[in-house]
Amino acid sequence: MTRIHDMGGRFGYGAVLPDPDGTAFEESWHARALALTLAAGALGRWNLDMSRHARERLHPREHARFSYFEKWLAALANLLVETGALEIGDLLHRASDRTAQALSSHALKSEDVSALLGRGSPTTRDRQGWARFSVGDSVRACRLAENRLVPGGHTRLPAYAAGASGRVLCRHGFHVFPDSNAHGLGEAPQPLYAVAFPAAELWVNPEHPHDEVVLDLWESYLEPVQ
Amino acid sequence: MESSENGPESAHSHLPPDPELRVKALEEILVRKGLVDPAALDAIIDMYQNRVGPRNGARVVARAWSDPDFRNALLADASDAIAGMGYAGRQGEHVTAVENTRDTHNIVVCTLCSCYPWPLLGIPPGWYKSDEYRARAVREPRKVLAEFGVTLPKDKAVRVWDSTAEMRYIVIPERPPGSTGLDQEALAELVTRDSMIGTGLPMEPQR
Fold it and tell me: In this structure, which of A134, A150, B55, B151 has its CB flanked by the most CB atoms within 10 Å?
């Protein structure tokens, strides 16, 4: 089983509310939460997969109650303590603690922001061995959408695609494997494929016989279909 | 090794519950500890508020409509093609462009979080991050499109791209009728953000 963040296909949700002109932060604290998360991430104590997993493993009741950036903030606070950047006492005694420390050499400087964001964190890695599948191959997604390295761990195979058959649309090269990288077990790069699934493979009542859903899936999520 | 769980007693519960106060408290702690420079936070916000936005993506689309060599290069390797226009970086490290045609309409979602091509489209809109969109876009894209005022012909297939890895997607919409002769700047004005996510169509030129 996956976790509550795995939303694809769930029933019970209402209409989407378009916002054609909204291209700004909806609240000023959203901007601050984003910036704080990126600046703290630049300390280098965790990677992108770890921060995604930290949001996913918030308690399901909190995950459901929190808005998007509230999830980010809660996960950030947890990660800071889990990685030892902060101690619980720093959160508990924040009102009384007035000792200011000098800026750490690891802290992100404003003059480096543009370069950091412009560089990003590419996840492609040099080819390691051969890709098992070719464009056009029929493949099936694993029946169980679960991390196979860490029970309850991070994975990027959505439950709605588990066990479904599709065909390889393109190969994206070798990418860092989140199921491993989210748990500090190494980048363990694997071939990544765009796999097209007919809607009828995924849903009991597909809207149209020719509709498809394409997912980017790592090789170990896939098995050949004879 | 098991995945560590965060019960309601996890670290964040020691911060104020109100999100605005919460972000302020966390920022104060990190600044006091020397882990965050407030000037760097301002620089990050300035970048996304003022320097990155859907006009970047619109320029890419307009160029693809006008320049067949660029279109071919974009469809072959979008990361490379957009880097040539100065668009790269966080959440746009790896980009694929998918082209709408007479037969196929493309639409992009991230069902597992809210992955989005920031260098091309800027800050993701609230609806893109909503449970409603993430749950429904893969299962009933045509109903979702109708909520955006888009109705597709019956013979057109929908291809939904679920951004489950670090590949980010931009839709190249069909060039609108009546746009012959417009230069790239005028064409870019027709390209809406939603048309590059696939939940909208480009505007038609005013006669």
Answer: A150
A145 and A177 in a single domain? The answer is yes
Backbone angles phi, psi at A171, to 5 degrees: -110, 135
Strands (E), B52-202: 94-99, 104-109, 157-162, 167-172
| Contact check, Cβ <8 Å, B136/A17 | no
* Section A19-29 average pLDDT: 87
Residue A35, chain B, CB below 8 Å: the answer is yes
**A38 is a domain residue:** yes
Instruction: Return residues 92-111 of B near A (CB < 8 Å).
Output: 92-94, 96, 109, 111
Cβ A14 vs Cβ B144: under 8 Å: no
**Domains of chain B with CATH codes:** 16-50 (no CATH), 52-197 (3.90.330.10)
Determine the pLDDT at residue B156: 97
Cβ-based contacts of B30 with chain A (< 8 Å): 36, 39-40, 80, 86
Entry pTM: 0.96
Q: What is the DSSP letter of B53?
A: S
Within 172-201 of B, beta carbons closer than 8 Å to A belong to 192-194, 199-200
Hey, is the C-beta of B18 within 8 angstroms of any chain A C-beta? no
Nearest-CB residue to A22 (from B6, B126, B149): B126
Nearest to A158 among B8, B45, B112 (CB): B112
Q: Quote ipTM for the complex.
A: 0.96
Whether A165 and A217 map to the same domain: the answer is: yes
pLDDT at residue B8, rounded to an integer: 57
- Closest among B160, B100, B17, B95 to A207, alpha carbons compared: B160
- A32 membership: H or E segment, kind and range: helix A28-41
pLDDT band at B1 (very low <50, low <70, confident <90, very high): low
Q: Specify the number of domains making up chain A.
A: 2
Q: Which residues contact B41 (CB under 8 A, 6 or more apart)?
A: A32, A35, A36, A39, B27
Contact of A154 with A56, CB cutoff 8 Å: yes
Of B40, B136, B200, the CB nearest to A39: B40
Length of chain B: 207
C-beta atoms of A94 and B160 within 8 A = no
Domain of residue A189 covers: 124-224
- pLDDT at residue B6 tops 70: no
pLDDT at B3: 66
